[in-house]
Amino acid sequence: MHIWIGGILSDTDTTGRTRATHVFLLLMLTQLFVMAAEANTQDFSALMILMQEWGIRPPSWVGSDPCAEGWEGIDCSNSRVTSIMLASRGLTGQLPSAIQLLSELEILNLSFNKGLTGPLPTSLGNLTKLVYLVLAGCSFSGAIPGTIGSLEQLFYLDLNNNRLSDQIPPSIGSLSNLNYLDLTGNKLNGYIPVSSGTTPGLDMLHNAEHFHLGGNLLSGKVPPELFTSKMVLKHLILDNNNLTGRIPSTIGNVQTLLTVRLDRNSLSGHVPSSLNNLSNMAELHLSNNKLTGPMPNLTGMDLLYYVDMSNNTFDVSDVPDWFSTLQSLTTLMMENTGLQGRVPQALFSFSNLQTVVLRNNHLNGLLDIGTIYSDQLQLIDLENNLILNLTQSGGSNYTLILLGNPICDKTNMEKKYCIVSRSDSSYSMPPSNCAPVACSSGEVLSPNCKCAHPFKATLVVLFVSFSNLGNFSYYTALQASLMQSFHSYNLPVDSVSVSYPTWSSSYYLQLMLEVFPSGEDRFNETGASALASVLSNQTLPRPDYFGPYIVEFYYGKSGGSNKALVIGAAVGGSALLILVALVGVYAFQHKRKAHEPWSRSIPLVRWPFITQKKQTWISNISGSVPQLKGARLFSFEELMKYTNCFSEANDIGSGGYGKVYLGILPAGQMVAIKRAKRESMQGGIEFKAEVELLSRVHHKNLVSLVGFCLEQDEQMLVYEYAPNGNLRDSLSDNFFVNFQLIKWENLKWETYPHQIP
Ligand SMILES: *[C@@H]1O[C@H](CO)[C@@H](O)[C@H](O)[C@H]1NC(C)=O
Ligand SMILES: *[C@@H]1O[C@H](CO)[C@@H](O)[C@H](O)[C@H]1NC(C)=O
Ligand SMILES: *[C@@H]1O[C@H](CO)[C@@H](O)[C@H](O)[C@H]1NC(C)=O
Ligand SMILES: *[C@@H]1O[C@H](CO)[C@@H](O)[C@H](O)[C@H]1NC(C)=O
Ligand SMILES: *[C@@H]1O[C@H](CO)[C@@H](O)[C@H](O)[C@H]1NC(C)=O
Ligand SMILES: *[C@@H]1O[C@H](CO)[C@@H](O)[C@H](O)[C@H]1NC(C)=O
Ligand SMILES: *[C@@H]1O[C@H](CO)[C@@H](O)[C@H](O)[C@H]1NC(C)=O
Ligand SMILES: *[C@@H]1O[C@H](CO)[C@@H](O)[C@H](O)[C@H]1NC(C)=O
Ligand SMILES: *[C@@H]1O[C@H](CO)[C@@H](O)[C@H](O)[C@H]1NC(C)=O
Ligand SMILES: *[C@@H]1O[C@H](CO)[C@@H](O)[C@H](O)[C@H]1NC(C)=O
Ligand SMILES: *[C@@H]1O[C@H](CO)[C@@H](O)[C@H](O)[C@H]1NC(C)=O
């Protein structure tokens, strides 16, 4: 079967023409479905539906075979579509149910299209070959469909930063191949599902290494059943939810855990002693809960870099032993935790130590920082304690804060350490070796001293192993590894700059990322999308210091300033706010008309039938019994009468398939009657299916079907025609002006040039 759609794809110069094509696209699709055509056609149809829904028209999407013709963003195997990668393309609209037609799909990656809204269709569950489902940073809402549990092959499920609500479907527990589960930054509520009886749950995910569920509204207990020794979980991220109850002692069963973030919930009770069974732990965040009982014993966590247990209500206790033994520590955050006694000098000698925050405790006596202390030490914050005296070597290179301690009472008031100078957002760019150059507006000087429009984004890193934001060697390492990734994907990148590190209020590290193009002075849309896509791959190699990150950016107008970023970072009062805040700026000036951009070339016109109500139509139409709603069956004689025996005067157009006649029904309604030539006729079933579909479509922008005639030697469709309407605005008018017709026999499109007088 051959389909020619060049006419459709190049026909966008007026809205009206585009609309007219819809009618025919629709006709064509009907035909395709009912003819149960070969698989390739099915994929083609599905892509046409997606294209219409999302309002995109990629220039490379021509011809009728997405696989043979190298459609951008589409990959195939054995002539079937296996991958759709359209990250950051400015797509708008919903995810049509028709996605299920792409039954060989393995990768669906639509991240960072803020305009994608509406619910995730239940038909996603029919894409049983899916391995990657990546819809991060869109605006999908509603519940995650339970059918997602049918995706047996799924390895990677990333829905972070949408507006998904309702509960986490227990069926996710059936995804036995799942490695990566990221639902961060949604509005998911209810309990964390665990299996019981025949109901699956997250405890069954024995191959998952990542549970990223932070920044939601999850409530109830962290279920003890969640943790089993069969798990290989590395990252358990549940921060910024509304979880209550105790931390279950079963957590000690999951020996593989590297990072645990349970901070910013309402967890209470004692921290289980099994925690120090987790000897691989690198980052532990328990802060801002209601934990009680003895100070947790972290002895044995010899690889721990970052610990934050601030703002809990532990029993007043002496400084624990592990302050003197956890040699890997970079960051110790124990604000407001009931600590008393002396801070051991050994702590400061840990060679990686960067930050010690012990504000609002009862630490007393002599603070001995000693002469041998970490050369990375940046901050010792002991505000509001009971420190009486200080031993410190000269020439210290870190900030010490002792305000609110007795030592600052009288004689030392003028000392630097008695005056607060906490300023952890003052880092900016690494020193530049460039000669001062004035770049033109919107351009930025790259690390290689060239002016260009960078691709900008914000990286929100879920956890890091360091806290000295002023040490640029971390960012240099990240830059290098990003460069390496971009080059391995053959992207034309000149240089990468990572700068403006700040902490969010939930201690996520936020970084500004600028990627500079090589050759051109800006990335074109293809390049920008590819960058976005690479960044969305969480398994991208990166230095060990950086945990997983979330990327935020959008297609902005040009000239976005760094101010936007800084403001975004500063105002985010809660993690959720920060995660959702659009702080990235994509300085990318589109010259839309000039070089046929990717998105928006088709004005936003919806397929009327792919609304939620009508989403079932595709499944209904295959193998259905025609049900004619409101479409009338005309006899040949009747139509003959209404058209003056199909007189030439009534002939308003013709095409390869046959002719169109103007007719007037007895009630005075004007109709256009499309009459098939004998050789163009389709089988009765196909014809009925077309009629059935058309009869269900009622939309102000579409000509609706009034009726049809199906007799031995005749097939006719009767459409509404409004002669008295405003011709300019009336679709019916455009409909005939640019009448493109299906040749029913071989589905070839033809343009019909007749104009109604
Ligand atoms: C999609 O899946 C549902 C149940 O999961 C099934 O009933 C339906 O037949 C499937 N549709 C197609 C087209 O395979
Ligand atoms: C958190 O849970 C408490 C009680 O369990 C409830 O009162 C509160 O409204 C919840 N907060 C949110 C944001 O859901
Ligand atoms: C520590 O881990 C081992 C191995 O999984 C387990 O057998 C043991 O019960 C755990 N201990 C605690 C206290 O959880
Ligand atoms: C902390 O745990 C270690 C090892 O599990 C143990 O030897 C030590 O006695 C514990 N310390 C306290 C104060 O319980
Ligand atoms: C502890 O709580 C105070 C007051 O709510 C807050 O300002 C501070 O940032 C919290 N500390 C940490 C480390 O989360
Ligand atoms: C910066 O970090 C690197 C990597 O951890 C470390 O080797 C170096 O000593 C640090 N430099 C300073 C000045 O802290
Ligand atoms: C502080 O320590 C110094 C030297 O160790 C000592 O001379 C001084 O008396 C101490 N001051 C107080 C108030 O303890
Ligand atoms: C303080 O740090 C800066 C930069 O990290 C370094 O150049 C300087 O030598 C350090 N000073 C001391 C006294 O360690
Ligand atoms: C976009 O940029 C890439 C690399 O610079 C180039 O190969 C490609 O042809 C460009 N595409 C368009 C449509 O200009
Ligand atoms: C998303 O698609 C892009 C290609 O467009 C790919 O490079 C990237 O790795 C994908 N992301 C994930 C998480 O698979
Ligand atoms: C993501 O990156 C990893 C490591 O570079 C690579 O193996 C994997 O294929 C990428 N995923 C996709 C979908 O591109």
Describe the protein.
The structure is a single chain. By secondary structure, the protein is of the alpha/beta class. Among the domains are: 2-38 and 582-746, Phosphorylase Kinase, domain 1 (2-Layer Sandwich), CATH 3.30.200.20; 293-423, Ribonuclease Inhibitor (Leucine-rich repeat, LRR (right-handed beta-alpha superhelix)), CATH 3.80.10.10; 449-552, Alpha-Beta Plaits (2-Layer Sandwich), CATH 3.30.70. A 15-stranded mixed β-sheet has the order 1-2-4-6-8-10-12-14-16-18-20-22-24-26-28, with helices on one face. A seven-stranded parallel β-sheet has the order 7-9-11-13-15-17-19, with no helix packed on it. Helix 2 (15-34) packs antiparallel against helix 3 and helix 2 crosses helix 11. Bound molecules: 2-acetamido-2-deoxy-beta-D-glucopyranose (11 copies).
CATH architecture of the domain at 2-38 and 582-746: 2-Layer Sandwich
The helical percent reads 10-25%
CATH topology of the domain at 2-38 and 582-746: Phosphorylase Kinase, domain 1
Alpha carbon gap, first and last residue: 37 Å
| Rg value | 32 Å
Kindly report the oligomeric state of this protein: single chain
Low-confidence runs of at least 5 consecutive residues: 1-39, 554-628, 698-702, 723-757
Average per-residue pLDDT, rounded, comes to 75
Classification by helices and strands: alpha/beta
Shape: elongated
E-strand count: 42
What small ligands are held by the chains?
A: 2-acetamido-2-deoxy-beta-D-glucopyranose
Order of strands in the sheet with most strands? 1-2-4-6-8-10-12-14-16-18-20-22-24-26-28
InterPro entries: Kinase-like_dom_sf, Leu-rich_rpt, LRR_dom_sf, Prot_kinase_dom, Protein_kinase_ATP_BS, Ser-Thr/Tyr_kinase_cat_dom, Tyr_kinase_cat_dom
Domain Protein kinase: 646-757
Organism: Prunus avium
Binding site for ATP: 674
